[in-house]
């Protein structure tokens, strides 16, 4: 065949394929599904549940020194979202703590850690909080 005819056939087939995909390639949306609009850490030690905010604009939860475990708490909006599954991940300071699938932090050392919570992958909402220790330390480490 002539190169021009082959090229013309390829163009025609490409155009037909584009039309077919645009007409039949869309997946209908599930109208019964309620999407997660937001997910936020909360601080149960505060009356309003709002986390403190540091000078860099980051959320902070202060816990007493000597704490070995801490249960992270959060809220998902709307409350009737279809998929309420979440994932916790330590973003920084992971060598000083571990987080379970349920958000239970277990501290290896008293060190500031940054934790992120993710909603389901389809909605992909997340929030981040710093966990820091407050109060007097029983042990004073002399750096010299």
What does the secondary structure layout of this molecule look like, with pairings?
Elements (H helix, E strand, L loop, with lengths): L2 H22 L13 E5 L9 E2 L5 E6 L4 E3 L1 E5 L9 E6 L4 E3 L4 E4 L5 E6 L7 E9 L10
Parallel strand pairs: 3-10
Antiparallel strand pairs: 1-5, 2-3, 4-8, 6-9, 7-8, 9-10
Describe this structure in words.
Residues 139-144 have low confidence and may be disordered. This protein is 15% helix and 34% strand. A hairpin with a 4-residue loop joins strand 7 and strand 8. With 144 residues, it is α+β, with helices and mostly antiparallel strands. It has a domain at 38-134: Immunoglobulin-like. A five-stranded mixed β-sheet has the order 2-3-10-9-6, with no helix packed on it. It has a three-stranded antiparallel β-sheet with strand order 4-8-7, with no helix packed on it. A two-stranded antiparallel ribbon has the order 1-5. It has one helix and ten strands; from the N terminus they run αββββββββββ.
Give a summary of the structure in a few sentences.
The protein is an alpha+beta fold and 144 residues long. It is built from one helix and ten strands; from the N terminus they run αββββββββββ.
Spatial extent as radius of gyration: 25 Å
Shape: elongated
Structural class: alpha+beta
Number of strand segments: 10
CATH architecture of the domain at 38-134: Sandwich
User: Strand portion, in percent?
Assistant: 25-35%
Distinct helical segment count: 1
Could you give the order of the helices and strands? HEEEEEEEEEE
Task: Provide the spatial order of strands within the biggest beta sheet.
Answer: 2-3-10-9-6
Catalogue the unreliable spans: 139-144
**Do you know the CATH topology of the domain at 38-134?**
Immunoglobulin-like
Largest sheet, in brief, is:
5 strands, mixed
The rounded distance between the terminal residues' Cα atoms is 85 Å
Mean pLDDT over all positions: 87
Helix content estimate: 10-25%
